[in-house]
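Extended Data, panel c. Modelled sequence:
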Amino acid sequence: MVSILIRKFNGYYAARPVFTTMVTNAVLGGIADTVAQTLTAFQRRQRQRELDPEAGNSKDDFMSMEIQEVNKKVPWPTEFLSARPPPFDFERLVRFMSYGFIMAPLQHRWFGFLHRTFPMEGGKATTSALRRVAFDQLLFAPCGLAAFFTFMTVTEGGGKRAVVRKFQDVYVPALKANYMVWPLVQVLNFRVIPIQFQIPFVSTIGIAWTAYLSLTNSAEDETIGTASP
């Protein structure tokens, strides 16, 4: 099955590389947000158990123990602890899929630029890979993260003030988290993965990362909502 998928992807990529990358990014972004929304529902249920002992013993629930680790990183406002898990947000899913779809052409050009500027030939593969990672993390990563929070805030109906608030509250922590995860991933990506698979590889690994961003973005929205008059 994997071999068939790879052949199919190679065929589509050879014919229409940018569009194939756009569709792939959109699908993986949708998977990531689905994971994030599922985690959100488990977070709410776990909070309910903590407030209502009759709802069940959360200490015996393995999934609840896992979700507690997420709660420590992305805490929910106390005003929402007793609320029921929210219904699945299809509009939010569309926003994440749209973001991946829109960003794919820019990613495609950027990875092509790195491929041409730092060729992996002449016995300098490791050095070139490290240079690609340095350029990617110092230039593209901060801009990409800024684009993500701006896009999400604006498409959610927020204005300039909401964008500024989002940057003040979550941008720097998210950027720090980025530097803890992505440099090692990108070294492997640039050193080992063929160029046609580099963006899908990043998007696949990025399912967990995008889920983290989704949780961060939605948790901050909840906080803003409780603080608003």
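The CA atoms of residues 201 and 211 lie 16 Å apart. This feature is highlighted in the accompanying rendering.
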